Amino acid sequence: MTTSEPIDIHAHYKKGDKQTSGTVGHLDAGQDQVLKEVWIKLLAHFENTKDTPIKVEKSLVKNSGLAKAGISTSDTEAVEKWYTDNTDEVKEIKNQLVCDKLYLDGNRDIIVPSTFKPLFGDSADTRTFSNAFWQATMRFHSPDSYVLKFVRASGWDTDKAFARIRSSIERRITQEIDRLMWEGDTTQHNGVTQNGMCLHVGNDRLGSPVFIVTVRQNSPKLRSEANAEKLAAYALEKAAQLSRKYGEEALIVYDFAGFKLENVDLGFTKLIVTTLQELYPLTFTATLLFVNSWLFSGFWRAIRGWLDPAIAQRTVVVKDV
After folding, report:
1. How far, in Å, CA of 291 to CA of 246, rounded?
2. CA distance readout (Å), 166 to 45, 51, 68
3. Tens of pLDDT along 45-64?
4. 3-state DSSP call for residue 43?
């Protein structure tokens, strides 16, 4: 069976070259055969599920007050009444979304109307597996690149790779990732959006975009679990989309400077790790953990067991960036 070679992150950055083994145009005969076998399984699954669309059951978008009330942002009269009746609730920092802040500040025309329509003719409440798959591959220059991310992360095991792709696409559908991205920042938690916890700051020496997550800006007490889950999905999808222009990979740096006990959020951290592994395998060339806090050692012991081998070998703890 074809297997992946260990990745030496330090060597690649010192040389200034990206890893190409196991990518499109750089497959040996065994790797090429595995890729073909995964495609055979995928195409068969497309055919088998074409008449059984998957329901959007855990939408990350529909947790806003307006959405829960079944109110369209296009219905200005109903929107105005809802905000009048719920002003105190939306003013609370823990609950307030960007769209709430915009409305309360009088910037009502900026709020995105509820006219979202899925690509490829799917209904608002369901998506077919094949349509969701093709949409997920749109951030890559080749659909093969998308499939190979999962294949490589699965150790070139055909069945495991297919299972991971299937699970990933089904999660994208049930969580309505396509609509989440269409809505943009407006349905994100206002406080998190304003504090700049996650920023794109340029490119690294390999040309990949660099994202810095300032961990001390994370405050679990100031936002709900639902908004945390939505933030994780939105930020990672946005980073993945941006990476398309720069070779389909990115670098992420978690800055633990000033990290305090109040910033510890194991639930949110595990959510990010599982989302990365399930939806975005090998999207990041490396994950750097910039550490100068005594709290980190205990935090690291708790989370490192959650990392699968593909992410673990690309994770580096550093004290100077």
Report:
1. 27
2. 9, 16, 29
3. 999 999 999 999 998 887 67
4. helix
